[in-house]
Amino acid sequence: MTERQSPTAAIVLAAGEGTRMRASRPKVLFELLGRSMLGHVLAAVRALSGDVVVVTGHRRGEVEAHLEEIDAEARPVFQPEQRGTGHAVRVALEALAALRQLPATSDLTGSVLVVPADTPLLTPSSLQAVLEHRESTGAACVVLTAIPPDPAGYGRVIRGDDGALAAIVEDKDADAAQRAIREVNTGVYAFEARALARVLGRLTTDNAQGEEYLTDVVGILVADGERVSAVVASDWREALGVNDRAQLALARACLRDRRNTELMRAGVTIIDPATTWVDVGVQVEPDAEIWPNTILVGATRVAGGARVGPNCYLADTDVGSGARIRDATCEGAWIGPDAEVGPYTYLRPGTRLGRAAKAGAYVEMKNATVGAESKVPHLSYVGDATIGERTNIGAATVFVNYDGLAKHHSVVGDDVRIGSDTMIVAPVSIGDGAYTAAGSVIVDDVPPGALAVARARQRNVEGWVLRRRPGSAAAEAARRAGATEPTPGDAPAPGDAPAPGDADDRSSG
Ligand code: UD1
Ligand code: CA
Known about the structure:
Strand content: 25-35%
Number of domains: 2
Structural class: alpha/beta
Number of helices: 10
CATH architecture of the largest domain: Alpha-Beta Complex
Shape: elongated
Distance between the termini: 91 Å
Largest sheet: 14 strands, parallel
Bound molecules: uridine-diphosphate-N-acetylglucosamine, calcium ion
């Protein structure tokens, strides 16, 4: 690595309107893998040392507020009118001179790295290579170029007969022969500060877009006899500039592939990288397995030995070693080691599943702690509850936590058996080792070891179908099974009178 003699500054260009996005928010705030486009570029720039200025303009308030959040050290510089990339750099250089308390931009020394904010795939190593190349050769300007399969839309790199960099021509200004050139400008440059300051004032707006092109600096420096050269990026994808939402999707897919490859190289099994999306802030430990159609976002962590997917969305969720999660949405949940979640399970914020606990099919939980080895296997809602260890919650149990005014908390002890279809009306407490009968509505505390029964007793009205649904398939089946009508004159069976609406004789046989 070259010893750096003079300070380095980086200028990130983020003032443009991003018209081609057709968006109501600034282009550079669009996210890829949980980080804004500007955030990706800054992360790459920050891997190098030096001052960072970010040129803002269009919707600067939003961009500057975001910048303050992600990188408070970076200095925003306002470009009131977006008069082109050359103009943006001119404004930035003036701010940089002021920052260093120099009388004029011509007093600046060292390297100036220029980076567009709409190229989220740039890597620190390419930025470093461009800077080092400039510093080791003493060139006035080194351009990072790339050779994409389709160069349309990018500035083309014009080289002389000797192969030396001669100029950059914008797509809109290029002739047919120039358009056929596949080597393009990535928009990343390392300049010698003084040379840059000297030529910026000579840019004109005499071009297809009526803008001051930074790209024209290259041709001007060459004409001045300055040394100018190019470094070709090893991977053309680094050049991917995001101007519209199709390019955004392409860049996002490239980042996804890059991230998945890193994870797989680090020992994570990914069954289908094309449908696995892991945000930059997510931690996946070696030996974890991710199955298809899985999206991991926010501060999610997946421990080694865990398996997530297929079909999972996990946000800010911690998954312990050996846990199994499939077909589930989990937000702000903590899933203990060897726990089992899914299929079709929704874990909301504040859910804590202990070791080897289970949240099964069609189960929703929120603000609930489930102790080790306890199971909620089917069709239940557990909200605002604490459940002990080794407890089983029967199918279709509901923790009735809301009375229309406030949420209330219920507690269920260790080794409890909650019968199917129990309504646990909060706040109640069910003691260790207690049982509840299926179909109970529990409104009072249940002491340890008690059986709580809270439901009407069953009664059978003999012969009802034969009397009330004569001739029906049910009546025929009942007769075949030996059912008989009570003899006339017998006292009517208790409850034989039709319940409201249940025997209006409109049913057809
Ligand atoms: C630019 C380059 C092109 C290169 C491509 C790489 C120029 C003239 N063209 O084209 O050679 O192949 O990037 O992606 O430089 N910006 C400002 N202020 C302005 C204008 C733009 O800050 O007045 C910012 C934009 O927000 C953007 C960046 O500069 O982040 C590049 O501008 P954009 O309009 O996207 O340039 P391209 O047409 O993509
Ligand atoms: Ca662009």
